[in-house]
Amino acid sequence: MIYSIPTEFAFRLHHARPRFKSDVESVLLFMCQRISNLERQPTSDYDAELFQMIRAYPGNSLKTAKTIHNWRTEIPALFGLINTQGNISEPGFYARLLAENEDLIEFFRYFLFSFQYPGGHIKPNKIAEQIIAGVQFHPTKFIIELFLEGQKLLGDQKQFELTSAELTSLAFNDLRVTAFKTHDAAFVAQKILSNRRARITYDQTGDVVRYAQDILDYMVLADILTKRSNTNSYHLKIQGNDVALKIMNRAPIFQGYQHLYGAGIPPLQEIAEIEDDWLQFVNEDRVSEAFEGDILSILATENAETKVEIDNLIAGLKKALEGDARDIGRAGEAIIINHEILRLRGLNRVELANKVKKIPDHFGVGYDILSYEGLNQAKMAELNRYIEVKTTRSKRMLTGNSFTLTPNEWNAARSHGDTYFVYRLIISEGALRLFVINNPYEEERKGTLTMSPRNGAEISYTEDSGAWEEVLIPTAEAIS
């Protein structure tokens, strides 16, 4: 038997869907880096510059202008990356934040904190349809409540799980949940379990379930949920974790459309004018919510074969960091400092290993760490390694190859030449990966990477720009 929503309660929610979902983290990082480097300016000029930047993304050079324009409109609309007031546009707060700290997990947490229906992520006529239907729905808040209520029903028997088809039919597309509030999370959890016992199935057509699935997948990228590949079901990564509870208890509700409910057909022009208020709402500075959490937590894995190794790795890194790693830049620098110490010890240069040090930011020298080449050079002075660390945290491994250097860092790369290194460190689920670029200034001259001079240097690199290296990790015992 296939479950169906009574006709009078059926209403399909939807939102903008960027056409690169399988690579969303890499594309978002690229877009935010580019958007944040644009100056506040008339929207028409802003859009024209952004169009050219998107064209530069790997693989986009031969795509049609329509496809590039879709990127330009769909991505900022969904994630609120550009703050537009009147005919003036500027980078949104969270576009700047992601470009600065490259923490994609934190970014998705802030996005989910404010995302709701209706919202300025869809066109005015679609917002009007949701208002007429009475929709007022914060999906992430409801999903977290649903998991907690489901777990209450199951107790300690097993972990409550959820599929996108169940969420779609029993919540997302049912006005009794999204508008009338007669079916709360506890009711839906009970209905999910009773339907399972009765072996009731659901419409799993891709264009039906994809909107609920989007939100579930974004919650995975925010490291709130885990998806089981063998069943395509989702569960809370850590039952009752602080991030989930913050979103459930403190998620803000946008009030901009409130006066339009129950007042007949809302004027589309008025809805369009509210879009500026929506953009201000989603770009409100909520950093005080402290969603970054433990930077190294993403390394944890449920894979039994590697779990012990990863647990030891995390323990060792936390000791090296002297406490919780709550700043991605500091975590990345600590990892690289230990990497360099171990590299030099491996070359039997303990005296140099003891001299590796972090350079205070306020010195403004254009690099993070002073290390050494470490090769035995009988007739010449020991060569320094000037290392700039670029660290990104994401749920999945990134495919995009880009980062930004400040004007000071690019100048340091040019002046130090072969002694200057960029260590591109990627922290993702169960893995640390390190790509090393030596002398990026020379690599740009050779054409293996490209540099666009905009508020510093926008760098796009290839596999030919450097080399992957194993991250050398001190064990917990070695640094205890």
Task: Characterize the structure shown.
- The chain has 480 residues and is α+β, with helices and mostly antiparallel strands.
- It has two domains: 1-290, Arc Repressor Mutant, subunit A (Orthogonal Bundle); 296-469, Trna Endonuclease, Chain: A, domain 1.
- The protein has helices at 24-36, 43-55, 65-79, 93-101, 104-114, 124-133, 139-154, 164-172, 175-178, 185-197, 206-221, 242-250, 268-282, 304-321, 328-346, 350-353, 407-416, 440-446; strands spanning 41-42, 82-85, 88-91, 162-163, 225-228, 233-236, 357-358, 369-372, 384-393, 402-405, 420-428, 431-438, 449-452, 457-461, 467-469.
- The longest helix has 19 residues, at 328-346.
- It is globular.
- A hairpin with a 2-residue loop joins strand 2 (82-85) and strand 3 (88-91).
- It contains 18 helices and 15 strands.
* Unreliable stretches: 476-480
Helix segment count?
18
- What fraction of the residues are assigned to beta strands by DSSP? 5-15%
Number of beta-strand segments: 15
Main beta-sheet strand count, sense and barrel state: 6 strands, mixed
Number of domains as seen in the coordinates: 2
- The shape is globular
Q: What does the radius of gyration come to?
A: 25 Å
Structural class of the secondary elements?
A: alpha+beta
CATH class annotation of the largest domain = Mainly Alpha
Can you give the mean pLDDT? 87
CATH fold name of the largest domain: Arc Repressor Mutant, subunit A
Query: Helical residue percent?
Result: 40-55%
Second-tier CATH architecture of the largest domain: Orthogonal Bundle
The first-to-last residue Cα distance is 60 Å
Query: Major sheet: order of its strands?
Result: 7-8-9-11-12-15
